[in-house]
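Case study.
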Amino acid sequence: QVFVVDDFRVDIEKHVYRLHELVKEMYRESGGPIRFRDLIFDPTPKIIARTFLYLLFLSNMGKVDLIQEEPFGEILVVPLEA
Amino acid sequence: MPYIEKIEMKGFKSYGNRKVVVPLSKGFTAIVGANGSGKSNIGDAVLFVLGGLSAKAMRATRISDLIFAGTKTEAPAKYAEVAMHFNNEDRGFPVDEDEVVIKRRVYPDGRSNYWLNGKRTSRSNILDILSAAMISPEGYNLVLQGDITKFIKMSPTERRMIIDEISGIAEYDAKKEKALSELKQAEENLARVDLLIREVKAQLDKLEKERNDALRYLDLKERVEKARVTLLLGEIRKLESLIEESNARDREIEAAMAAIEERLKDIAREIVSKERELSDVERELEEKSEDGILEVTRKISEVQSKIEMARRNIELAEKEIEESQRRLAKTKEELKKVSEEIEKSRNAIQRWSKRREKLKAEIKEKEVAKNELVVKLGEIDRDFARAREEFDKVVAELEEGKKELYMKEGDVKKFEEEIERLKTKIAQDSAKRTALKSRIEETRRALEARRSELGEVEGKISRAEARLRKAEKELEEKGRSLKKVEGELSKAKEELIKAEAHREIRGNRAVEFLKRQKVPGLYGPLGELITAEKDYALAVEVALGGNYDNVVVEDDKVAEKAIKLLKENKLGRLTFLPLNKIKPRSMRGKPPLGVPAMDVVSYDARFKNAVAYALGDTLIVNDMDEARTVGIGKVRMVTLGGELLERSGAITGGHYRPRGRLGVNVDEIRKRVEKLEREREALESAVNALRVEIKGLQDGLFELRMKKSGLNKDLQVIQKEMERLLAEDKALKEEIEESERGIEALEKRIHDAKGEMARLRGRIERLERKRDKLKKALENPEARELNQRIREAEHEISKLREELGKVESRLEGLEARINEELLPRKADLEEEIEGLVNRINALKANIAENERAIGEFEGELEELRKAEEGVKEELKELRERRESLRKEIAELRSEKEELSSKLQELRIEANTLKIKLAQYEATLKEKREELKHHDAKIVKGIKEIPLELEALRKEIEEMEEEIRSLEPVNMKAIEDFEVVERRYLELSSKREQVVAEKESIEEFIEEIEGQKRNVFMETLNQIAKNFSELFAKLSPGGSARLILENPDDPFAGGLEIEAKPAGKDVKRIEAMSGGEKALTALAFVFAIQRYKPAPFYLFDEIDAHLDDANVKRVADLIKEASENSQFIVITLRDVMMANADKIIGVSMRNGVSKVVALSLEKAMKILEEARKRSEAEHEEMFGHLSG
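After joint prediction, the assembly is written out as follows.
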């Protein structure tokens, strides 16, 4: 899959996989779904937006499942076994 | 303004069978997700629900393709449905509810259903509602993927129409439409009135013409009567004045004739004197051109050839000097060599002399020793001594012979060298001769060419001279003939004039008229058809009497025709003699005396009857006595004196003025005159041609003579050159011969020397043999010892002697070379040098001499040229004089000619005048009579009589013509016209009303258009201002403008975009990069948004080609604009996402898209709280650490 995003295109796969690892690790530790907000290491709009986008990529790749009960409600992330 | 609250999709594209809700709100919403996850399908859903019909715009082939197609695990949808919820709290939609829900469903067969707030409705109703809220599926607020450049790509006109729509000028168009239909009505009215007017006008025009005709007719009638009287009066007056004028003219003519005759005499005198002068000039001219010019030309060419010769001499001398100097240098070189050799030889001689002295001394010493030995030996044997003596003598002789042989060999060698030298010289000379020969040949050819040319020129000259002589002779002859013809001509002319005058006086107008009519079969008056012998002329004329003027015609029909003509023209009466009817008269028996008149006249046989009718019974007698003898009353008789004795006995006599010679035919004379004139003309042209030819020949001759003298000159030069070349050739030949003789002599000497050498060799051989014999005789045992020593001594001596001999021979050779060869050679060379120097000096003197001669010759030439110029000038003057004299004579002649003919004309005129006078008087009488018939009142009323009667006559004719053409005249038209004219004026005023109405409508339309334009311009100006500002914001440092293609009429052209991105020149938008285009387009969209915001904006990946900085600027702008409108932006860029209020995430699992919504604001708040909380916890646990 190719992601066409200029400034961090080179690193995007790296970032996506790193996020995946993080999700998996957190899942191992907590044993339950992970809250989206817990994945944010820096509360700036850009980082939030980016993390949200990477999660969408991972979901699209079938690596994670995103669960939202209501619009703008809590987003839960569950890693999927390949 | 309404905004979208949410979009619900079911079975739409990738969104599966379950209902998916996309929550939206006011402000800025970003839709994000990986490629292919179904982000753009949300945009498609918006288009779909707004009633979009283009499947392509929604990225599908058919509308039914929008239905979810199913996956491995999920079944396909039965239909696709999208519902859009609008917030309508501000009643942007014309629906009285807070929420407006529009729903569209499409089935696999392509059928679509629409619902508005849950109620089924039609697509058009949906479109109307949307349009009321300013929403349309094709609106500029919807920018689909890759579509951002549509504002760039669209035509200027399409771009302008966006502004049209925004400014809402459609209402003006509707008003205009209405006004236009009113205008059409007005135009129709106008057309109707125009039709009526045309009808009435046609009637009016017709009546006007008829009325005018009637008026004109009355006027003409009156005027024509008046004009007729005026004409009569005028004619009378004119006749009176004509009579007066004719009398005056007659007097004038008399005077003019006298003057002309005087002048003619003068001219004749002048011509004689001019011709004398001309012949003088011609003689002089001939002399000058024959001798003067040719002599000078010949002298010039002589001097020129002399100059040429002198120049050639100088050239030759210079060449010779060069040659001599070269030779001088060579000789000097040789002299130097010879001198050196002499010096060297002398040195050698000195050396060799020393050597000789030394050898001589040595020999002497050795000989003394030897003599001692010999003496000793002699004491031993006397014989031996003798032998010894002889041996010595032989040896000496031998040496002598050998020396001589050496010398001879040297001689031979010398001779051979000399021969070689001579041969080389011969070869050189021969080569020179060959070159010379070809030059001689060339020169000879040139010489021959010149000679043949000269011969040709001489031939031409002699031919031209012969032709000239012939032409001159011919000219003389022709001149004589011309003079003769001229004399005859003038005589004939005079005769003609007389004859014509006679005829004019005698002539019968009627006959002349008939003759002019050229009636076939009409031959003329009898008198003119008869020629009488001279002595009988008078008698015949009298005999003809009244029959003279009888006209002879072919038959009675011709006569009838002629009579008719005479009648018609009122030309009086004539008697005709028809040849088929006329009965000849004859005499009853020939009387003894007198001659029948028929016998003394000649005539055409055809006319015999007519002639016999007049003269057949008439006898011509000498006098009355003879008549009496014949018997008066017996026969009709005429005497030669002109007395007529009729058969009746009546005798007529007295003075008779002859009418003129019978048969003097004017026509014949005229023919003769014409013939003579033709002859004269021919002669004159021949004379002129001859003169031209003579002049041409003279000029040609002059040219030829010049050419001949030039050729002669050339010939001389070439001949001299030829002579020089031949002399050179001869000298070379002699030199070669001399060299050959020298070789022969030398060879003889070599031969002699070789003979001598053979003789010497024989002698040497003999002497050697004798010496050997003597040597044996000297073999003596006792003496051997001595002898041995002697021999040794002798051997030494002989060796020394041999060397001495060689030395001496060498010396001799050297001396001989010095004395016999080198010194004479030196002397020769010195002599030659002197000779050459003298020669060079002589040549230089020669050159100087020649140059001086050239100077003289050139002076001479200059003078000769001047002389030539002078002679030519003189000739030219003479020629000019000759020409002018000729011209003068010709002029005089022509004047004479002219005067003569004028004189003749005057004579004719005088005669004519007299006849006319009589006619005038008769006519005058007639006219006075006629005048009495007219109304006396009118006659009195005429005050002015025009001079131009012809014009008046023409006027009368024209008036009569017009009167005829006017008939029949409608007199009623005068009244009818006024009635119709009133009707016409009424209609015209009605037409003016209609026109005014039409114009007011047109004005109204113009006003509407002005308002429309104003509204448009206001909108455009605002948007253009926004555009420029926004572009500057999006592209800092850049600038852009919106420009009307046609500022005078905005609606006739489109709207252009001119953009200048930062740091670049003005770019045509086509040439801009994708990012620049996107920025420009966005500036345009935002400019409109700022002027008149749409309820919502949907942008699909407008940031694809922008770098982060630009995305940030665009995002900021969207953020700012989102305060007034809702923005839904589909994007992949984090910078854009970071600026949004809400983010809708789209991802696809197992072929079905799902949606996750994130509120950035809310997330930030939660995170901030979490951070604070964790910080608080941290602080609680560890206390405040930072300082």
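Observations recorded in class. DSSP finds 21 helices and 24 strands in chain B. Chain B has a mean pLDDT of 85. We will return to this complex in the next lecture.
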